[in-house]
Amino acid sequence: MTYGFTTGSCAAAAAGAAARMLFGGKETDKITIMTPAGIEYHADILDISASQESVSCAVKKFSGDDPDITNGTLIYASVRPVADGRGEVYIKGGKGVGRVTRPGLDQAVGEYAINSVPRQLIKETVSDAMEQYAFTDSIEVTISVPEGEELAKKTFNPRLGIEGGISIIGTSGIVEPMSTKALIDTIRVELNQQKAEGAEEAVVAPGNYGLEFMRDHYGFDLDKAVKCSNFIGDTIDIVKELGFKKMLLCGHIGKLIKVSGGIMNTHSKEADCRMEFMAAAALRAGADAHTALKILDMNTTDEALEYLYEGGLGDKTLSYIHERILFYLNNRAGGAVQIDCVVFSGTGRSCGHF
What we know:
Strand order of the largest sheet: 4-5-6-9-7
Oligomer: single chain
Mean pLDDT: 93
Number of helices: 12
Number of domains: 2
Helix content: 25-40%
Order of helices and strands: EHEEEEEEEHEHHEEHEHEHEHHHHHEE
CATH topology of the largest domain: CbiD-like
CATH superfamily of the largest domain: CbiD-like
Strand content: 15-25%
Distance between the termini: 32 Å
Shape: globular
């Protein structure tokens, strides 16, 4: 499987290359940057346009083996000097980069949807160039994606409150492959290894959030856990197939809320319904219609859960969600495996036992 690079890495590479061309006065067709994952990104620089006052260039998004709608899209960065003597890097969005219109996302309402990790990576790459060329004024960086507005229509951005284009995202800087067969095969191999090493219980998390929660709250050895990505149902099938008698699933409510409705592949392209399930759970916990309607208009499950805690219904709602998750997990297992679950929120709320 081949990994790719995020829109954030592409934007940072383009910005770094543009800054170097602005300061150095000559074109470059390649740049290497270090991603937050510690993997070097060797990017080709395309569509260069330069003047004495600004430089613009692009990097083509490569998603590896991940089925990503932005694969092959050109991510542009243009840079221009700002004569203020502050040595800052100012970042804004251009054509095809969305703006945040609703609270609860990485950036505040009104800001361009360029998330915090990509912003930091852009600042670092441009600051490196500024230091190399002893540039003491500031630089304005504009990130744009000419196809972004059309691409955004194929994403959940409009539902989340990001309008006018795509988001510039990525926490690790790389795109890990999400090929269904390859991922499921990997899950099977890792679970089989755990079984061969004497494990009696399969310990599973959809992703890094779940793994980190197990480590930070329970001191769990993550070498004994398996990441199942979105393939929760398939993972249960494999656990049964390999003869485990117990399984523990640990995951963030934003992912596992879908399981409370019987959804066993939690990828957003398969199903969402997070806020609908949150609203239904709140009603079961005693919330009124006004509360449920407010939840339906919220962006995230964390936001909704905290709202319910403020109203005294958080514990009851989370307990109900946990109960429904267990129902569907054990229904999939068909009695062959005893499954427990820990569901937690980004604010530290949790339900279930490790």
